[in-house]
Specification:
- The chain is mainly β.
- It is built from one helix and eight strands, in the order E-E-E-E-E-E-E-E-H.
- A four-stranded antiparallel β-sheet has the order 1-2-3-4, with no helix packed on it. Strands 5-6-7-8 form a four-stranded antiparallel β-sheet, with no helix packed on it.
- The termini are far apart.
Amino acid sequence: MEVRGSVMGQWPSAAIGIWESDSEVLSVAFSPDGTRIVSGSIDGTIRVWGARTGDTVAVLLKGHTSWVWSVAFSPDGTRIVSGSNDQTIRVCDARTGDTVAGPFIGHTSSVSSVAFSPWHAHRLWLQ
């Protein structure tokens, strides 16, 4: 395997590694500024990691009752959206872990993918 890209030239080789988690990780996403990574796990938790160190910055959300299939940062990095096997979508504050929207219910199956719209994200949280 070969890793390429302009950012990789700026990172030390130690930044690429394997990090241990208390639970199997199903989804990961980088923050827009590249300093954090969010992960969703089979135990229903969402964790934020330091991208350079692999240290856990925060365990944000324990509101899901089942596997977290998908996670994503908002374009400004202040929110995290998650989709779960419990058929819900939740949005939490990326720093505090407080739920800011949801749970959104109504799905009849697992929510396997979530994303923020870059155009709407700045308007959604101002209302």
